[in-house]
Amino acid sequence: MRKIVLLIALFGSWQVLAIDAHPGLNGPWHQADRSGQGLVIHVIPDSNQVFLAWFTYQPSGGEQMWLTAHGALGSDTIELTIYQATDGQLNNPDQLPTNNPWGTGQLTFNDCLSADFSYSGPNGLSGTMDLTRVTAPINCSEV
Q1: How far is residue 92 from each of residues 64, 96, 98, 99, measured CA to CA in Å?
Q2: What is the pLDDT of residue 82?
Q3: What is the tens place of the pLDDT at every residue in 73-95?
Q4: Taking 50 as the threshold, does the pLDDT of residue 121 lie above it?
Q5: What's the pLDDT score for residue 7?
Q6: Domains of the chain: which residue ranges?
Q7: Angstrom distance (rounded) from CA 59 to CA 20
Q8: From the CA atom positions of the chain, what is the Rg in Å?
Q9: Whole-angstrom Cα distance, residue 2 to residue 48?
Q10: Pairing relationship of beta strands 3-10 and 13-20 according to DSSP bridges
Q11: Rounded to two decimals, what is the model's pTM?
Q12: Which of 111, 65, 104 is nearest to 85 (CA)?
C-alpha cells in the first residue's frame, strides 16, 4: 500500500509522518477561491489506482469542461493521465463520448484535509490547486 509522506519541522529537525492512501480520502475536494469547480477523488487500493473527476471550465472561460484522470498508487506523488470526454450526448447509448488524452497531473495528499494538485494540458496550459475537503472525512487516519 502506498504511503503519503508529510514532513514537519520540529525543533530544528525533520520528522516524517506518513498516512496510507485509503478510501478515507475519497470525496469532493476544491480550492476555496475557485467557486463552481473542483475534483471528486476516489482511491481504489484493491486495484492500486486513484481515479478523479475534475469539474472545471474551458481555458477561454464560460463553457464547462469535465475531465477525468487516473494514476497508480506507489509514490508520494501520484502521477495522473488526464482525459477529456467529447462528442457524447445525455443518456444516449448510441452516441458515446470519445476519451481524448488532455494532459498530465500530479496529486499529493498533505493530510486528511488538504492536498496539492498540479496539471499540464494542451498548448502549454498548466497550473496548481491547493485543495481542501468539501465534506468531513470519514475514517481518515493520518497515522
Answers
A1: 20, 7, 13, 16
A2: 98
A3: 887 889 999 999 999 899 999 99
A4: yes
A5: 37
A6: 22-133
A7: 34
A8: 16
A9: 8
A10: antiparallel
A11: 0.82
A12: 65
